[in-house]
Structure formats: structure tokens, C-alpha cells
Specification:
Elements lengths: L1 E8 L3 H12 L8 E4 L41 H15 L10 E6 L5 E5 L2 E10 L21 E4 L13 E5 L3 H11 L4 E6 L5 E2 L5 H16 L7 H5 L1 E2 L2 H8 L5 E3 L3 E2 L3 E3 L5 E3 L2 E4 L24 E2 L2 E2 L2 E6 L8 H19 L9
Parallel strand pairs: 1-2, 1-5, 5-18, 6-15, 7-8, 7-15, 8-11, 9-10
Antiparallel strand pairs: 3-4, 4-5, 12-13, 13-14, 16-17, 17-18
Helix pairs in contact: 1-7
Length: 357
């Protein structure tokens, strides 16, 4: 077993922010702390985004602490732009991310340490920073008849871009940002599209500024303080009305139907007799927090979530969760990384220095 002070799990925005602040606090990578990432290369979840999500369509990508992204070609895939930026960042600050490394479980260890079991071996750590986000846990709702559908079913996590749907009849399920983006793209090449959501979409006029952002974060924070699962982003922020979405609404692309009651062999159906024939069902139904590796620590509350005090799990002060709840946004991840390291420095008994103060 390799003993370190801190293990950071995940090298997306939140994990890299934490690693940066750990270095600023005087901790050395591969000596005092280690960063484990199961992705094949730098870029966090961004590296898995579909090619048609170009950088100019990304909503609010905030720079990592200590290094601006700089000028970027808005027409390039966001996976490439952000992947290259994360690579430069890791190299510039010498973060020495270990990849691909999969963390299987975190358990109570010996001498007050946590035992981190990974594909690279076992680490004994005084503090764990879990920055695993949500991308690895796509949510698939279950509906009667779903297993009998004769067409193609896929989730946002495996969305290949609009070209794959040319000439097909497509049902898009989900009222979030990804669902609307997919729908607008697919409608340009598909034979027919149908949009289905559980709730009536709420459209947001005007800019989503700092005040609105703080209010949205406060709502999410309150849920995690109560030990409830975090809400989806769109349930707090609403969907933006811009030139593209206005045009799609005028063309009838964003006309929503309520959720169907069952899936048939050839499409979807409602109890009132409505039927839609389909070749594809695209489940743009969001993601859940990827925290299964923490299950042995029994951090969940009866409400189903992990109760948080800041970035720290209420049931174990040695465990910090970043990219969970209010820190799931890019700017939230940056702030959470700094806040977590303040607590880590205190717990380790080190003198706070640099950006971690």
C-alpha cells in the first residue's frame, strides 16, 4: 500500500482545480498527493462530447485557476479545444495525473486512513477528494415495453452527432440543454422528430448573470445540506431563449409532448390513444452522481443523497466531494477546489499558504 496525505479521484475541472490548490498549499504530487483519473487522456468528461458540440456552443466554460484558456476557434469541437487546454494545464503545473486508473472502492483503512482500492494498486490516504462528476452514470428511466422496442435506443452519453439519424424517425426524451441541442440538430436531417418531456419546459428570457447563478447554486446547496440527491441544472436555471431556440420553436421543432406511457415494438404510445412510430429513441435524460466507489463508507442519508457541509461529507470529514451538487458547474468546480483545499490543509495540520489561504 502506498501512503499519501491526499488522493484526488478524477481529473476534470474540479479535480484539476483541487490539484492546483494542493500544489499552491505546498503539497507535492506523487509524494504528498496523487491524482487518479480513469479517462484515457486529459479533458475530463469533455473528451467524450459529440463532435457537433463546437466550442462556440458551450455554455459558460470557465478557465481553470492560474491559466486562461486563451483564444479558441469556436468552430472546433469542444472536446478538442478543452482537451488540449487541460493537457497544457496538467503539464504547466506538473500535476502528474495517473491514467487510466479506475478506483473500485474506498473503505475504512488502518490507523485512521482511508483505503483507496484502484487498478493501479492500493493507496492509504488521510484525505480523499472525490471529483468524479456525473458522466459515468447516465440515467435511463424505465418504461413498460422498453425492452421490446425494435429500433435503436441510446443515451446522450453515446450521442454520435446528427448525421447518424439522417432519414430516421426520432423520439427525443428529455427537457434539458442536451435534449434541446440534440433535437435541433437531428431535426435538420431526420425524417421526423418528436420531443417528449416529463414537465412543461420553462424558457428563460434574458441573460443568466451572476445574481441568477448565485440563486441557482443556493437552491442546489439547500438540497445537499438536507441529504437529498442534487437537482438537475435545468430544473433550476430553465432553458435559454436565444436566436436558435426561437427559430426552432417557430418552425415547430420544439413543440413538446407529455411523457408517453409505454414503448411499443415500433415506437411509443400514450394511454389516450396517441401513437408515434419511431426508428430511434434518444434518452437525453441526464446523469447521476458517480459516487458508487464511496458506497463502503456509508455516506448516504435516508433521503438518498450525501449530506454536505461545504465540500465535505457530513458523515466523514476526511471525504470531500467536488462536482457534486452546487459544484457541478465549471465555475462551481473551481471554487469548490479552492474551498476543499482550505479544509484539507486544516485537517492535515499544515500552514495554509498561497491560493489555498
Amino acid at each position: 500500500m502506498t501512503a499519501v496525505d491526499v488522493v484526488v479521484v478524477g481529473a476534470g475541472q474540479a479535480g484539476l482545480s483541487a490539484a492546483y490548490h494542493l500544489r499552491r498549499a505546498g503539497l507535492e504530487p506523487d509524494t504528498d498527493f496523487v491524482v487518479l483519473d480513469h479517462a484515457p487522456r486529459a479533458g475530463g468528461a469533455w473528451q467524450f462530447r459529440w463532435p457537433s458540440l463546437t466550442y462556440d456552443r458551450v455554455h459558460g466554460m470557465h478557465a481553470l485557476p492560474g491559466m486562461e484558456l486563451g483564444e479558441a476557434d469556436g468552430g472546433r469541437p469542444s472536446s478538442e479545444v478543452i482537451g488540449e487546454y487541460f493537457t497544457r494545464y496538467e503539464e504547466a503545473f506538473g500535476l502528474r495525473v495517473h491514467r487510466p486508473v479506475h478506483v473500485d472502492a474506498v473503505r475504512e483503512g488502518d490507523g485512521g486512513r482511508l483505503r483507496v482500492e484502484s487498478s493501479e494498486g492500493v493507496y492509504g490516504t488521510r484525505v480523499l477528494v472525490s471529483a468524479t462528476g456525473t458522466w459515468d452514470r447516465p440515467f435511463w428511466p424505465r418504461y413498460p415495453g422498453q425492452d421490446r422496442f425494435g429500433g435503436w435506443q441510446l443515451h446522450t452519453a453515446r450521442y454520435p452527432g446528427p448525421e447518424a439519424f439522417a432519414g430516421l424517425r426520432v423520439v427525443v426524451v428529455g427537457g434539458g440543454a442536451s435534449g434541446t441541442q440534440h433535437l435541433m440538430e437531428i431535426a435538420e436531417v431526420a425524417a421526423e422528430t418528436t420531443w417528449v418531456t416529463r414537465r412543461e419546459p420553462v424558457w428563460r428570457e434574458g441573460d443568466f448573470g451572476e445574481a441568477e447563478g448565485r440563486a441557482a447554486v443556493a437552491l442546489v446547496e439547500e438540497r445537499v445540506r438536507q441529504g437529498l440527491p442534487p437537482m438537475s441544472v435545468v430544473s433550476v436555471t430553465g432553458l435559454p431563449l436565444n436566436e436558435r431556440t426561437r427559430r426552432a420553436r417557430a418552425e415547430g421543432v420544439l413543440e413538446r409532448l407529455p411523457m408517453f406511457d409505454r414503448v411499443t415494438e415500433t415506437g411509443v404510445a400514450w394511454d389516450d390513444g396517441r401513437v408515434v412510430e419511431a426508428d430511434v429513441i434518444l434518452w437525453a435524460t441526464g446523469f447521476r452522481a458517480a459516487v458508487d466507489h464511496l458506497a463502503p463508507l456509508r455516506l448516504r442519508e435516508p433521503g438518498g443523497g450525501i449530506r454536505m457541509v461545504g465540500t465535505r461529507a457530513a458523515r466523514d470529514e476526511r471525504v470531500h466531494l467536488l462536482g457534486y451538487g452546487p459544484s457541478a458547474s465549471t465555475i462551481g468546480a473551481n471554487r469548490a477546489g479552492r474551498a476543499a483545499v482550505r479544509d484539507v490543509v486544516r485537517l492535515l495540520g499544515r500552514a495554509p499558504v498561497g491560493a489555498a489561504t
